[in-house]
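> example.struct
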């Protein structure tokens, strides 16, 4: 009896966005007959290299090894344990791209409208023609990471915008830097315009807060080091506003005579443990005035107000003193 196969709309959209026929064909093959790549190469009239490349793209797109079913009623060709590859598996842990020949890149540059568009867009942003190394990197992002062309376009603009903030409006980031960011997007599963916009929006919000803190620390005139960025990023992630960090900064300089990042970080970690987040929290829970106020409210009892004596009381007191004398 034949068995119906069901593909989710999300998976279909990912396959379409990947614009790769071998990748889609291998996905359908695995869905029907299992993940045996050697068998797939023979049945699909593909080379082992083609199957491996398509398999890596499926892994990058989070479409690794769908549940195999025997549509023809035959037994599955692979055990279930071999079918459960982790999704979004990193094929190259060092964030490197495969080596491509000039012929492969030229073929796509001539016959693939999407890739030609990416080349034109990158050259427009850079202001000049891409080098052969640039083309290999751009093609690797497009082919190996299997990011949709429209997402790569946003990636290029995002990297350019961030780089120009630091180095001027006429500058352009290296493709090595773009490659690192592309791997970051692929690892996060940013495969649609909506997800890319969400990521960029979140980055800009964090960046604005980082600038506020850097300005408060009097560091706005230079680029932050990686360590400084990590410190500030962690404080922002803890929920501290710039005003609270400024109080911790003042205490750090007062006690150490300088900006000591570990000392400042220790203050904020201590406040986080105590639930101190806002300047008002600091005033209430970790200032000398607040401590005295809390101590006084716990340990002392207000004295009863002294009763003001009346005129008659004073006369009696004076008369009594005269009689005694």
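> example.seq
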């Amino acid at each position: 009896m034949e068995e119906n196969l069901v593909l989710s709309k999300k998976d279909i959209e990912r396959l379409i966005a990947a614009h790769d026929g071998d990748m889609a064909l291998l996905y359908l093959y695995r869905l029907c007959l299992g993940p045996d790549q050697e068998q797939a190469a023979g049945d699909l009239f593909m080379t082992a290299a083609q199957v491996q490349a398509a398999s890596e793209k499926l892994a990058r797109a989070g479409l690794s090894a769908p549940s195999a079913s025997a549509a023809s009623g035959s037994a599955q060709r692979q055990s279930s344990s071999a079918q459960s590859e982790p999704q979004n598996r990193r094929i190259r842990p060092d964030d490197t791209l495969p080596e491509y020949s000039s012929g492969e890149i030229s073929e796509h540059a001539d016959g693939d409208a999407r890739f030609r568009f990416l080349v034109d867009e990158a050259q427009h942003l850079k202001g000049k023609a891409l080098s052969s190394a640039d083309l290999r990197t751009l093609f690797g992002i497009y082919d190996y990471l299997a990011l949709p062309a429209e997402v790569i376009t946003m990636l290029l603009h995002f990297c350019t915008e961030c780089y120009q903030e630091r180095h001027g409006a006429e500058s352009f980031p290296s493709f090595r830097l773009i490659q690192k960011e592309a791997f970051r997007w692929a690892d996060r599963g940013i495969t649609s315009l909506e997800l890319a916009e969400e990521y960029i929006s979140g980055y800009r919000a964090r960046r604005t807060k980082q600038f506020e803190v850097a300005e408060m620390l009097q560091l706005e005139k230079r680029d932050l080091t990686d360590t400084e960025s990590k410190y500030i990023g962690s404080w922002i992630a803890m929920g501290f506003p710039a005003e609270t960090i400024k109080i911790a900064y003042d205490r750090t300089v007062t006690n150490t005579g300088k900006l000591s990042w570990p000392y400042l970080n220790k203050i904020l970690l201590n406040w986080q443990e105590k639930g101190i987040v806002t300047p008002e929290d600091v005033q209430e829970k970790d200032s000398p005035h607040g401590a005295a106020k809390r101590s006084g409210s716990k340990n002392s009892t207000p004295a009863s107000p002294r009763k003001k004596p009346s005129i008659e009381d004073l006369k009696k007191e004076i008369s009594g003193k005269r009689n005694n004398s």
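> remarks
Residues 67-91 have pLDDT under 50 and may be disordered.
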